[in-house]
Amino acid sequence: MTNTTTPDVMFSIILPVYNQAPYIADIIHSYQKELKNLPARCEFLLVVNGDKDASLDICQKLSRQYENIRVFHSAKKGWGIAVRLGFKEARGNLICYTNSARTTAKDLLLFLLYAFANPETVVKANRKIRENWVRRLGSLLYNLQCRALFGLAYWDINGTPKVFPRKFDLLLHLSKNDNLIDLEFNYVCQKNHYPVIEVPVLSYKRQGGKSTTGYFSAVEMYCKAFQFWAAIKQNLKDEKSS
Asked: CA-CA distance, 102 to 107, in Å (whole number)?
């Protein structure tokens, strides 16, 4: 396939990196190869956060190999910290963030093509398969909780990739430093009537490493979602009384 890029369109692809030294290079090589079929320019922002292995060194080597890679580092770990740092540094007019351990090169290309064809729309993943019944149940409970508390119409709050146009600038000013940033993302989309396309994702095998989500972190996420809802309700109450 011959790739003719559209010069006025650029994607900023934010990839949080946490202890991914054994496989992050292979993932980036696969992304670079597949995205040659993308009719737009792209930059990769590798945001290494709280790493305890050689991830930062490997990412810096990748940035010397590829001109479209920039590397950033946060001593503190946190999915939201990494995503927000990426937002701050992104130069593209279409912004994407995703979990590289779960996103294949073909899936990433698919989502970017959807966004390229729908530049006035948020494009997000709706994962249809989980590794096992425990994760399926945990995800179902969390998504039902978010529906009940926030009235969200989406079935996969945490699913990535998520892609959106820079003009939806409120999404560039999210505040959460942890996994709750994905709930905040969806809440902001609904509150501000940003149109959303949910694209089904059928692949479920990780490309490397182990998930950082366990029983404790899952329960913590349920509790933080409720706290987020309570804070919103309190802010609305304060605004009415002022």
From this structure: 10
8-state DSSP, 122: E
- Residue that is written with structure tokens 């990748």 in the block: 62
pLDDT at residue number 191: 96
State which CATH number among 3.30.1490.190, 3.90.550.10, 3.60.10.10, 3.40.1280.10 fits the domain covering 6-241.
3.90.550.10
Domain ranges of the chain: 6-241
Q: What is the pLDDT of residues 7-50, one digit of tens each?
A: 789 999 999 999 999 999 999 999 999 999 999 999 999 999 99
pLDDT digits (tens, 9 = 90+) for 112-125: 999 999 999 999 99
Q: How confident is the model at residue 131 (pLDDT cuts 50, 70, 90)?
A: low
Supply the DSSP string of 41-62, one letter for each residue.
Answer: EEEEEEEEES--SSHHHHHHHH
Do 96 and 162 contact (CB within 8 A), yes or no? yes
Q: What are the residues whose beta carbons fall under 8 Å from the beta carbon of 90, sequence distance 6 or more?
A: 12, 14, 43, 45, 166, 172
Please report the beta strands in 89-184, taking only residues with DSSP state E, as ranges in sequence order. Answer: 94-97, 122-127, 162-165
